[in-house]
Description:
Layout (H helix, E strand, L loop, with lengths): L5 E10 L6 E7 L2 E6 L4 E5 L5 E6 L20 E9 L2 E8 L8 E6 L5 E6 L1 H11 L9 E6 L3 E6 L7 E7 H9 L8 E6 L9 E8 L2 E10 L8 E11 L13 E2 L2 E3 L11 E9 L5 E9 L5 E10 L1
Amino acid sequence: MKSLSLKATMVGNQPLQEIPSASGIEFVEGAYYVIGDDSPYLYQLDEQFKLINKYSLFESGKLGESGRLPKAEKPDLESIAGFTYGRDNMLLIFGSGASEARNKGYLVNLSEKGTVKELDLSRFYTFLKRTLKIETEGLLNIEALAMDNIYTYLLQRPLGSGVNVLFRFDSDDFKDFLLRNGPIPAVAVYHFTLPGIGQNSAGFSGAYALGDKLFITASVEDTPNAIDDGEVLGSLLGVIDLNALPYATNSANPLAVPAVQVAAENGAAFKGKVESLVVKKTEVKNRYHMIIVTDDDRGGSKLLEVELKLD
């Protein structure tokens, strides 16, 4: 396989002052949709990143002054992806699955004024745990979701030096499972390694499918489990060649993901936790414009714009 070189240049950086703990972003029909891992709302931004609407995903009377849920009760919403079903534009939002409280998901029908359906993902997450041979609570940690017309991708973030895992499903079967109570779809499993920072390994945090590429965000965090936060050491942007998935089937020999560390406008390493991304093609071949959300684990959120060059 041809090796890939990446160069990322930050061209925009602004706070998302009304959105706590941003953890996922998607773009549908001229609007960005953002979730926070400890917020009960789905936030809608216009193309200038101005907050224009928010939808309640679930009722919660335990929000603090900051608008955040207590850690023990938050659904840990980490993943969001858009798809079409018939004539409707839908958003799918997943909790991480790291605890019982985090086994929930939400379907939002944007074509029906943002109507929300809650999903119980317990059975599905039990299936994923069995697939990975996980028996201990807190080891499943679904951090990213991406969908295209053919496949649906779920990304598992490992603990410590573990291997990053990509689950792939047929998108039609996945929609049938979610919307028509169909069977859990067949899964293909792929294994990856990412560059680390110092002695710490990087783990998946976001994903976006575009053409034959899966663009990913990853962060390096010093934490003992999937529930507690740790010191953030930096973040990465990477690209998985979807044509190379046959080389990633062996967990003992995971495929290396080309990645580059996110840097601030002044060239210094960006120490925030990059959580999710939307990727847009530019008029120049192998150049991409990325819209990225970050979380500082204290409730603060930022939106970054990054130009990515692939060689």
